[in-house]
Specification:
about 260 residues, alpha/beta, Rossmann fold, seven-stranded mixed β-sheet, five-stranded mixed β-sheet, about 25% helix
Length: about 260
């Protein structure tokens, strides 16, 4: 028997498929909070939080977490996850280019190249200004961006499986499809196949994503105003500065509110 999920309606499958060891990433975020912020970081906003892989783990470490996501299904699912762990948090269905919080936070994060959903410089500038409104002076904005060595890189693909009890989730993901080098846009595709008690459920997602290169990003941050550039890294490695890295795939950027 087979059933099919629509776009953004399978948060449980997504949570299982991407339930990887995030300790290195969360350790890095905590290091940034302690090393670079000029305020004590206690309240953190996770933008495009999805099913909360970073939000939940930071809440487990004692941070007061808020989450913003465009998907009501993700927010509902995350609200249940937080409640099951005894955590509270302000969870908002909203657009990362135009949002406001009840009160400012000490730090903001945006993980898993979620900024790539903004396909123009105008959207990215609006996003940076919205984040600047949300974070206290001296607080941080930490985010990661996918990188490629050049537009001639071939499409990249990954496949893996995860099990949660009797439920098996098989995932496949590909990036750098249908590249438009002028707009810096490419297509990403993801398939999640769930097998549970003989029932096969299939979830497909395809969306456009945009790549921003390091010096371009610096210029956009300066143009947006509100932040100073602190540092950037290759992946979640506190001693691996981006300029010293060969063929980096992930750029992690630390900004501080001025």
């Amino acid at each position: 028997m087979k059933s099919r999920y629509r776009h953004y309606t399978a948060p449980r499958l997504y949570e299982i498929a991407f339930d990887t060891n995030r300790k290195l990433e969360v350790d890095f975020l905590v290091h940034c909070f302690e090393r670079y912020a000029k305020v004590r970081v206690r309240r953190v906003l996770d933008i495009a939080c999805g099913t909360g892989p970073h939000l939940i783990r930071l809440a487990d470490r004692g941070y007061q977490m808020s989450g913003l996501d465009l998907s009501p299904e993700n927010i509902d699912f995350l609200r249940q996850r937080l409640a099951a762990k005894g955590h509270r948090g302000e969870l908002i269905v909203g657009d990362m280019t135009d949002f406001r919080l009840e009160r400012p936070v000490d730090a903001v994060i945006c993980m898993q190249d979620s900024q790539g959903h903004m396909l123009t410089n105008a959207q990215l500038l609006a996003h940076l200004r919205a984040v600047a409104r949300a974070v206290k002076r001296g607080g941080l904005y930490v985010f990661d961006r996918y990188m490629a060595s050049s537009w001639t890189d071939p499409a990249r693909s990954w496949s893996w499986s995860k099990r949660r009890g009797r439920l098996i989730v098989r995932a496949s993901f590909s990036a750098l499809n249908d590249v438009d080098p002028v707009a810096q846009i490419f297509r990403e595709r993801m398939t999640l196949e769930a097998i549970d008690n003989g029932t096969r459920r299939l979830y497909r997602q395809s969306h456009l994503s945009r790549m921003v290169f390091p010096q371009e990003l610096k210029a956009l941050v300066e143009l947006a105003g509100g932040f100073e550039f602190v540092q950037w890294f290759f992946g979640f490695k506190r001693h691996q500065i981006l300029e010293r890295s060969k063929h980096p795939l992930i750029m992690v950027v630390v900004l501080r509110k001025t």
